[in-house]
Amino acid sequence: MEPVRKGRESIAIGNIIGSLIFFSTGNIGLLALTRGFSTDPSVLSFYWPFLFISTALIAVLLYRGKIKRLEAAGLGTLYTVYWVLSYLVV
To answer: Which residue ranges make up each domain of the chain?
Structure first.
């Protein structure tokens, strides 16, 4: 939040994207190195579509250079739908 308060939104976005990339690749890589793992088919049928849709949507919004409050509310709503469905469906 500090970069946003200081008017450095691009640093905040970079921090978020970098954290997500490291979290995904670092955790999966360490898990695979230490124990190996298998995934449930629901990962491909439920979680991946949400990941790709939300990533594409955020990329479009960031490409325009600004995310408005209504769009941010839409992203929050999308996350809420994802959260509820992940507990009800999967």
So the answer is: 1-38, 40-90
Q: Strands (DSSP E) along the chain, which ranges? A: none
Distance CA 42, CA 40 (A): 5
pTM over 0.85: no
Cβ neighbours of residue 85 closer than 8 Å, sequence gap 6 or more:
46
For 61-74, what is the mean pLDDT?
A: 87
For residues 90 and 43, the answer to whether their CB atoms sit within 8 Å is no
| 56 within 8 A of 66, measured Cβ to Cβ | no
The Cα–Cα gap between 13 and 19 comes to: 10
CA 33, CA 31: separation in Å to the nearest integer? 5
Look up residue 56 and give its two tokens.
Answer: 């594409």
